[in-house]
Structures are given as structure tokens and as C-alpha cells.
Design a protein that fits this description.
By secondary structure, the chain is of the alpha+beta class. Helices cover 43% and strands 21% of the residues. The C terminus is likely disordered. Belongs to the prokaryotic Ku family.
């Protein structure tokens, strides 16, 4: 059961609602001790008296305000309380605002508010009123000797008090170098594709499915060291831990979004989205699409198949010529020469045709 941090009341106009404050968060950080690597001895932290150099017990430590150099006013716990008794005992609601209008960077630490004795009815009244109106209550509260701005929010059946930063503690957003549109801004097509990705990744709020996986991995390393007996072994730094730096390059945002949709979407949904993307591309650049189709068709057409079929028939012919003997080659060459000479030599019929005109003229 969580411990009670603070007891008091919510001041709601003239209504006082007794409540107790309990923590709404916890940490799972590993409890690591500082060691002397020479002998693995723990290194302790001590509060040292700066004049004597000797350690001081916690019971002998008090809080003091330096109004001049080396001159202090000592303040006890009762002094902090008596400074403003009402402020230290009440969550004083000063106004109500739209809960959605509070920027998230104002929030600090959440706490649960639980009704104390005789506070159930007032607690239920405030809770139901805030739930119906969708409002958050802004309040002032003193916790651990410091006054906080706080927001009371409805969460299920409970009221949550979230301490906030004051306006002068928040750095202005105007100091940031943010995109101003134009070349730095996103195009309409990129936004449409990003919306599809957001819809594809949208799911019900289930915080239990998320966990600190780095802590699990670190515990696995610790367990492996314990099992191997290397409880005092220091692991040297790896040379590959620092990522290699790369120069700036142009990012194809549309390609990244398409790849993301392809990996995240359901099979049927991916197919439908892919079809709509191809249809859009065809409308915008029909010439490119037809060129791709024709090139694809010619690459897979009959001509390519015919070339593949004719290739084996040429190989045996080359092999046959290569296996002919020198004598056969000479005979073939001699026969070809004889045929050429016969073609050049005039036949008897041609010679007679040439002589006939000469006889007639005589």
C-alpha cells in the first residue's frame, strides 16, 4: 500500500474536502553503488563540516538562509509550517480551465488524491462536476517546503493532482529553430501518406504492453556475469559503440512512408493501399507507366524466347566445324574455288549468242 505523503483538504469555494496525498508514480532504476576499482570497496558519501573536515550526523544538520556572508538564519520544520499554515494544509483551487488546453510540458509529478474521513461526499461532488464539464482545476499547494502550481484532473473514478512548472520556469518555444514551411515543410502527398501510417499504427491505449527493455537487457548482462563467475571483471569499452557519423543527405520521405506502410499494415489493407498508390501514380505520369510496361513486355516477349532457343542450335554447328581435319578443309576450299571459276567461264550457248550478230552483219 502506498504511503501518505501529505494530509490536508481541497478548498473549493466554501467547500472543504479532507484528502490525503499519495504517490502516483514509482521508478525502476537499478540501485548501483560506486566502487573503487582497485579493491572493489564501496565509496560512501558523507556530509563534511567545511571548517573541521569531519563528518556530521544527520541529527546535527539544520537548514539556514545566508542573509550575509557567513551569517545565517536557521529555519526549523515548524518555521516552514508557521510561515503560512493554510497554504501548507490546503489544495487551494483558484480557477478552472479546459483540461485539453494545458500544454504537457507544464506537468511535473503526479499524485493521487484520496478522500479522508468525512470527505467522501465532497470528493464525489467535485469529481462528477469536473467530469461533466471537462475542466481541470488549477490550484496552489505547498509540498516539501515549496509552493507549487498544480492541476487537479479526473482519471477514472479518482482525482489526480499533478504538480506543474510556473510560467517563468518554462523556456519559450519561440527560441527554437522550427520549420517555417516552403522547402522545410511537408508536401500534401507526404501528409496524406503519413496520415495513412498513423491510422495503420493506431490502437487502443494499453500502457501495460510497454516496458523498460533496456533495463531488462542490462539485467541480462548482470546475470550472465554472475553465472560466469566474473563478478569483479570490468568490461572494456567497445570500439563499435559510437555510431559512425554521416554527412547530410536528402531524405526521400515518400519512399520511407511507403516502406513503413508496407511493413505495418494488414495484408488486405496493404494490397488495397498499394493498388490506390499505383493508380495515383498512373494518373500523374502515364507516359512513364506505359514505358515501363512496354519495356517489361519486350524483355519477356517471344523474341527473347526465340533467341534463347536458337542459341543451343548454333553451338553444335561450331563444334562440327571445329572437329574437321586439315585434309577435309583443303578439299572443301578446292571445291569452292572450282565452282567460282566455272561461274566466271562463259558457256557455249553464251558464246554462240555473241557471234550471231557478227555473221548477220557480214
Amino acid at each position: 500500500m502506498s504511503r501518505v505523503i501529505w494530509k490536508g483538504a481541497i478548498s473549493f469555494g466554501l467547500v472543504n474536502i479532507p484528502v490525503v496525498l499519495k504517490p502516483a508514480s514509482r521508478t525502476h532504476t537499478l540501485d548501483l553503488d560506486m566502487l573503487d576499482k582497485r579493491d572493489m570497496a564501496p565509496i560512501g558519501y558523507q556530509r563534511i563540516n567545511k571548517h573541521t573536515g569531519k563528518p556530521v550526523e544527520s541529527d546535527d544538520i539544520v537548514k539556514g538562509y545566508a542573509y550575509e556572508k557567513d551569517e545565517y538564519v536557521v529555519l526549523s520544520d515548524e518555521d516552514f509550517k508557521q510561515a503560512n499554515v493554510e497554504a501548507t494544509q490546503t489544495v487551494d483551487i483558484v480557477s478552472f480551465v479546459d483540461a485539453a488546453s494545458i500544454p504537457p510540458y507544464y506537468f511535473e509529478t503526479p499524485y493521487y488524491l484520496e478522500p479522508d474521513k468525512r470527505g467522501e461526499r465532497g470528493y464525489a461532488l467535485l469529481h462528477e462536476t469536473m467530469r461533466r464539464t471537462g475542466r481541470a482545476a488549477l490550484a496552489m499547494v505547498v509540498l516539501r517546503n515549496r509552493q507549487h502550481l498544480a492541476a487537479l484532473l479526473v482519471s477514472g473514478k479518482a482525482l489526480v493532482l499533478n504538480t506543474m512548472r510556473f510560467a517563468d520556469e518554462v523556456l519559450p518555444i519561440e527560441d527554437l529553430a522550427l520549420p517555417k514551411g516552403g522547402k522545410q515543410g511537408a508536401s500534401a502527398r507526404e501528409v496524406d501518406m503519413a496520415e495513412k501510417l498513423v491510422e495503420d499504427m493506431t490502437e487502443d491505449w494499453a500502457p501495460e504492453q510497454y516496458r523498460d527493455t533496456y533495463r531488462d537487457d542490462l539485467m541480462a548482462v548482470i546475470d550472465a556475469k554472475i553465472k560466469s563467475g566474473n563478478t569483479h571483471l570490468l568490461t572494456p569499452a567497445s570500439e563499435d559503440t559510437a555510431p559512425a557519423t554521416k554527412g547530410a543527405k536528402v531524405i526521400d520521405m515518400m519512399a520511407l512512408l511507403r516502406d513503413s506502410l508496407g511493413k505495418r499494415g494488414k495484408p488486405g489493407k496493404r494490397a488495397a493501399e498499394k493498388g490506390s498508390e499505383e493508380a495515383t501514380a498512373a494518373e500523374e505520369a502515364p507516359a512513364k507507366v506505359s514505358a515501363k510496361v512496354s519495356a517489361k513486355g519486350s524483355a519477356k516477349g517471344p523474341a527473347k524466347g526465340a533467341a534463347r532457343k536458337s542459341a543451343p542450335s548454333k553451338a553444335p554447328a561450331k563444334k562440327t566445324v571445329a572437329t574437321k581435319k586439315p585434309a577435309a578443309r583443303k578439299a572443301a576450299a578446292k571445291q569452292a574455288t572450282a565452282k567460282q571459276a566455272a561461274a566466271r567461264k562463259p558457256t557455249a550457248k553464251n558464246a554462240a549468242a555473241k557471234k550471231a550478230p557478227a555473221r548477220k552483219a557480214a
